[in-house]
Amino acid sequence: MVTHRGIEANPLKIKAIIDMKAPTCLNEVQRLTGRIAVLSRFISKSAKKSLPFFKILRKAKTFEWGTPCQLAFEELKAYLASLPLLIKPSPGEILYLYLSVAPQAVSFVLLREEDGKQLPIYYVSKVLNRAEGRYTPIEKMALALIVTARRLRPYFLSHPIGVKTNTPLKQTLGKPDTSGRLVKWAMELSEYDISYLPRTTIKAQALVDFISEMTEMTIEEASQDQKWLLQVDGSSTAQGSGAGIVITTPQGEDLEFAIKLGFKASNNEAEYEALVIGMRMAHETGAKHLLTYSDSQLVVKQVEGTYEAKEESMIQYLQQIADLKTKFHHFQILQIPREENAKVDFLSKLASSLEDCRTRHITIHYLPEARTPWLSSL
């Protein structure tokens, strides 16, 4: 429905889903997915939200409406209660595209920016088939772009498109030695006026649901025998700068590193150095599913994309991290309290206080009780 405010979802179509009772057979699930499809333009990550329902339809011969389906059904209804208003773009203006990748779906939102505000124009989602589900993370990101270009071709033909991403998507599509399908997609995209821009903070509340780019799947979904943990911390003192890194293997073995930085770095730069070095070490050690912890709110939020990086050094670090993320099947970073990061905090401070970079072994003994008589009496 086009109004003076913009493009609004038909309230009757919304009410049809909100008033639905939980499906009791396959036909009712089909009716539900059909109603979702009608409103998909307004629903952020509609394919991901609908996955539990599609899984039921794929089974075909059996019907089981379990807890995941009920939760997804209730979350969908809650989301529909406040659907975003969509905006019609002005002729010829640049439009911006945000891409999101999940294990079984890709999603995207096209928007315009006006007076610092981000206004959504169109949401699109696609459920991946089995072959697409085996694509690498960067291939899925490229697939999301090509699907968007095909689905929203009129917009791509009549507007310059700025793809907001912190992944090496431009470099991947531009490689002459890249895979056959990527070459084909790059040729198809060449007819459009597409530029690739660093992803900035998504400010609009209606788009907050859309910030999980390149999460691929949450680390919790990786099996326990695949999961690697990485804890990092950086330190900058008058004596110098250092990085503390602890890599925990799936078998529970801790690999601990105190790294002296041979150059002066600010505290934020040291935090980023620790993350970059830790990710490289984890990759070289064989990690494919990496869950990373840092106590730096700035680093975590900038890597997630919820904070915008303005300093050139921070932007360069983010590009390195984006490149490194493509080397893992799954990557996730979380912020933890400083007290829970005590071990790497100690290692980073130890490294920053060293006056040289010689490799050394430090022996640590445990003294259960005082050995000196006068101390025992205290």
Helix proportion:
25-40%
Tell me the total number of β-strands: 10
CATH class annotation of the largest domain: Alpha Beta
Number of helices: 14
Indicate the multimeric state.
Answer: single chain
How are the SSEs ordered, and which strands pair?
Elements (H helix, E strand, L loop, with lengths): L10 H8 L7 H13 L7 H14 L7 H14 L14 E7 L3 E10 L2 E11 L2 H4 L3 H15 L1 H6 L2 E4 L4 H6 L5 H10 L4 E4 L29 E11 L2 E9 L5 E8 L5 H19 L3 E6 L2 H8 L7 H14 L4 E6 L6 H12 L19 H4 L2
Parallel strand pairs: 1-4, 4-5, 6-9, 9-10
Antiparallel strand pairs: 1-2, 2-3, 6-7, 7-8
Summary keywords:
Ubiquitin-like (UB roll); Nucleotidyltransferase, domain 5; five-stranded mixed sheet; 14 helices; globular
Summarize the structure in short:
The protein is an alpha/beta fold and 378 residues long.
Care to describe what's here?
Residues 224-353 form the RNase H type-1 domain. It comes from Sesamum latifolium. The protein is an alpha/beta fold and 378 residues long. The chain has 3 domains: 11-80; 95-210, Ubiquitin-like (UB roll) (Roll), CATH 3.10.20; 222-353, 2-Layer Sandwich (Nucleotidyltransferase, domain 5). The protein has 14 helices and 10 strands. It has helices spanning 11-18, 26-38, 46-59, 67-80, 130-133, 137-151, 153-158, 169-174, 180-189, 267-285, 297-304, 312-325, 342-353, 373-376, and strands at residues 95-101, 105-114, 117-127, 161-164, 194-197, 227-237, 240-248, 254-261, 289-294, 330-335. It has a 5-stranded mixed β-sheet with strand order 3-2-1-4-5. Strand 6 and strand 7 form a beta hairpin. Helix 6 (137-151) runs parallel beside helix 9 and helix 10 (267-285) packs parallel to helix 12 (312-325). The radius of gyration is 25 Å and the shape is globular. 34% of the residues are buried. Residues 211-223 have low confidence and may be disordered.
